[in-house]
Amino acid sequence: MSPLQISAYTATSAVGVGKEAHADALAHSRSGLRANDFGDAPLPTWIGRVDGLEDVRLPESAMAWDCRNNRLAWLGLQADGFLEAVAAARQKYGASRIALVLGTSTASIGETELAYTQLDADGNFPSDQRRPAVHTPHSLAMFVQQVLGIDGPSETISTACSSSAKVFASAERLIRLGLADAAVVGGADTLCGSVLFGFNSLELVSTEPCRPFDAARKGISLGEAAGFALVERVQAGGNASQLLGYGEASDAHHMSTPHPEGLGAERALDDALARAGLAADAIDYINMHGTASQKNDEVEGALVARRFPARTHASSTKGFMGHTLGAAGIVEAVVCLLAIERGLMPGTVNTRALDEGFGPQIRLEPATGEVRYALSNSFGFGGNNCALVFGKAVAA
What we know:
eleven-stranded mixed β-sheet; Peroxisomal Thiolase, Chain A, domain 1; single chain; 11 helices; 30% helix
């Protein structure tokens, strides 16, 4: 495929707002996880909670969209000059030529949960919750489209934990087919009861900070995050990092368990490398999906061990901000972009002893060095897999 330029990007998670906060946490192996304090009856687990969301105020013109998920998106959009970058693209291309592709797994369902606790005597939502557009999966995209002032093609992708990785693939197709000249991609997911108690019902939630690929791993730590990127055709003389390839596959093996041999994950990996025109040994850093669940880590660890040389630096960053579900793809894409631009390869925090079944690629400590190519894995329920390859700008 023809590469796409990543002209601007940002992320907000439990480790902070913006690129600098994330780079600092990754460099110093500083986790943002904390004992669960979310909700009226917190589960005994650890979470990656973003501080201050309760105090975030949307622009007056967008207050009709107010909910935790959209507040998180607004907080994230204001970081790293992202709003200004989109404004410049809007001026260059026109509002109708900028697409919007966002991923989320729960959207504003937390607000809907709240509304159900406020039913009146007739069983109806209170008047301030009668906002049908907010109580839909497309709420995030409609809100972001309004505050960015763009009106090109708009999509919401909801494929569980691969949602905001697949946005890059959709954006590439929209631009390649001439339906847009640029695209804002990303996603946001916030903590809510459905997420915490839903994953707990699957016996996937750990009572301690998650330990990806640890021999004694006990499950995931849930988190919330938002991230965004502006992608466009490569500009002459530009030095921004690039999206080089993507791969998507659905193995449809089980509703919540990956294929035992990782067939879908490997198919996504193969397609991403093929589109990028790279062999596996060209990859310098891998951001693994690495949720700390028994089966995901088992399958992904085996895949990386058999396909990549021992020198490849691989890690999971779920121990930093938790598993941010539909936002995981974009946040971990940002980690890859930081690795390329700063030569920083993060370690795997909280993990004490790697499962002996995994290879030497998985590193517990951060490292520095040139990162020419980075791979990001995002694997969702139902075997919905996405792999992304990013690289340094190639001189024209």
